[in-house]
Automatic annotation (TrEMBL):
Transmembrane segments: none annotated. InterPro entries: M/V/L/I-tRNA-synth_anticd-bd, tRNAsynth_Ia_anticodon-bd. One of its GO terms (biological process) is tRNA aminoacylation for protein translation. Keywords: Aminoacyl-tRNA synthetase, ATP-binding, Ligase, Nucleotide-binding, Protein biosynthesis. It holds the Pfam family Anticodon_1. Residues 1-70 form the Methionyl/Valyl/Leucyl/Isoleucyl-tRNA synthetase anticodon-binding domain. It comes from the Archaea. GO terms for molecular function: aminoacyl-tRNA ligase activity; ATP binding. This is Class I tRNA ligase family protein.
């Protein structure tokens, strides 16, 4: 009962009474367990945070108060190409082999241009689209602008970096 207020005194009393069980202050800290759900939430947060940062930087460069923001998530086909390129880069860093295998598609060129900047994890189309759609209200309140999230087949939209239009 007195442990929260006088922890050292209560430990001394506990020891004098002959109790061998360690009190909380002697126990080690619990280990952090990373579950699959934690990893998924971290990735979802990363998608949202990166997009919000990109919008902030764009607004800063354009020096304007946005009325509307359009976010275009890369289409499913781009995610498939992206994941193939990242998978191949994990196996073999020989870019010429990847070009031969994947072709000289514009997206492949863009991704292979700076292979060290590519994240190791694979990207998921549904996750990116759903996270940004669910966050439309949050982004709208944050920037005081109308926000629209949709799929985009535009070349500027790549997995992990959606196309952003600010008006």
């Amino acid at each position: 009962m007195i442990h929260p207020i006088f922890p050292f005194v209560s430990e001394e009393i506990n020891e004098k009474l002959g109790n061998k069980e360690l009190l909380e202050s002697y126990k080690s800290w619990p280990e952090l367990e990373h579950t699959e759900q934690d990893i998924t939430l971290e990735r979802e947060f990363e998608v949202l945070n990166r997009t919000v940062d990109d919008i902030k930087n764009l607004i800063k460069i354009l020096k304007l108060q946005p009325k509307s923001i359009k976010i275009g998530v890369a289409d499913r086909a781009k995610f498939e190409v992206y994941n193939k390129v990242v998978g191949r880069l994990k196996e073999d860093r020989d870019l010429s082999k990847i070009y031969k295998e994947m072709g000289r598609d514009e997206l492949v060129k863009k991704l292979i241009k700076n292979p060290n900047k590519l994240p190791d994890e694979l990207r998921d189309y549904e996750t990116e689209l759903n996270v940004l759609k669910e966050a439309e209200g949050y982004i709208s309140k944050l920037f005081k602008a109308k926000v629209q999230v949709s799929e985009s087949s535009d070349d500027k939209a790549i997995p992990g970096k959606p196309k952003i239009e600010v008006e």
